[in-house]
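Figure caption, in words: inputs first, then the predicted bound structure.
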Amino acid sequence: MSRTIAIVQREHRALAAVLYTFDHVLADIRAGKVTADIALFDAILSYVQDFPDRFHHPKEDDVLFPLVLKRAPEVKPVVEELQAQHHEGIRLTSQLKWKLDAWRADPEKGFAQFDAAAQKFIEWQRKHMAKEERTVIPAAREKLTAADWVAADASFADNDDPIFGANPKKLYDQLLSKIASLAPEPYGLAARHEPKKGEPEMAEHRREELVQLHWI
Ligand SMILES: [Fe+2]
Ligand SMILES: [Fe+2]
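Bound structure (fe (ii) ion present):
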């Protein structure tokens, strides 16, 4: 397998793992099984916003898609749709961050709106990746020449290319570890705190702790 495809698919798997945690923790909060740790959602949103926009999509937009369009012009409508979705993703993740801030400001009522927007986003992001896996990647595998792969692989050779920022892979790996350490078991390593009767989804002690937390 080419290095290009291996990297794109590895990044899809990493993003899918974060979406899995996001989805299941939200479902448990909704079901009253666990209290929310807003620091976990801060870390998740940081990942689902920055990782695709700064690290993953540039490789698709600048390297993979142009080569696929050159060799398989029949997939142009799908590629254009995917490129438009990359822009749409920026809007959706910004909206999610506003809704998280609204929930932080209003722990009694803010969860439902954040939850609804998050569920929509999770489904949207999964569909986006599935479309790439089912159309662009098979077309690339079938149509790109050996020389195309050499050129693509060379562009992907250095994950720490300055175009993506200083040592971004390490930064995103640290963020993945942070998500795993904050997510309640069995999705992560943190202890589960069950809500007491009548307690809002976000417990008071978690909000107080937030003052101490910083982005990595
Ligand atoms: Fe994409
Ligand atoms: Fe992708």
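DSSP finds seven helices and no strands in the chain.
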